[in-house]
Amino acid sequence: MDYNQYKFLSFDCYGTLIDWETGIWNAFQRIILLNNRTDLSREKVLSHFAELEEAQQTNAPSMLYPEVLYNVHQQFAKRNKLNSNEKLDKEFGNSVQYWPAFSDSADALRKLKTKFKLIILSNVDDAGFADSSRQLGVNFDAIYTAEQIGSYKPNTANFEYMLKRVKQTFGINKDSILHVAQSLFHDLIPAKAVGMRTVWIDRQNLSKNGNWGATKVVNDLPKADAIFENLMSFAQTAV
User: Fold this and answer.
1) Nearest to 146 by CA among 126, 169, 130
2) Whole domain around residue 92: which residue ranges?
3) Which of 44, 72, 98 is the endpoint of a domain?
4) Are 201 and 180 in contact (CB under 8 A)?
5) What's phi and psi for 129, nearest 5 deg?
6) Tell me: the pLDDT tens digits for 163-184?
7) What does the pLDDT read at residue 211?
């Protein structure tokens, strides 16, 4: 791929730049420990989260992300017969601020920033991304969240909103934008559907039969235009 033809990179944040699976797993520890449920493995917890989050976002597309997480925590407790309470549900709902960045994210973004303008297209609220952005080491040229758009990826409306706003603000068409993401379900499939070219940051090693973690399973894998195991590998190739 000739990366010189692109002026902008659009990014998913959670799963690509922020290690949301570690953040989610850590945030579930309170309720797991309080209920002494050592049978709830990381793999099982993340799989349940993927199902519950997707259903909640589909059923309530305008709900802010902290409320989505609040409801997911309640539903997770009910599904697994755990005792929860309002305090635990709210703590989980407000946990995004504690989710860590991947170790290569800030350095890779700084490297990419020397050549490209950087855009965020994220499934969280404005405040949640503002907290996470402090870990990422760059100022993004545009930030579009589910709160602004009123729906959640994989809805193609989110990508159409981004493309329209970038055209209005910067005068750039989608042929000059490359979408960079980890999630096949949330990002690569809908990005392809609106005609964007994509880079898959395969942090879960799904191309080598890795674990789906907190992402809904996709049976038919979309074909990305390029695949990298981490963000720094992509940055070193693209710049």
Assistant:
1) 126
2) 20-98
3) 98
4) yes
5) -70, -35
6) 999 999 999 999 999 999 999 9
7) 87
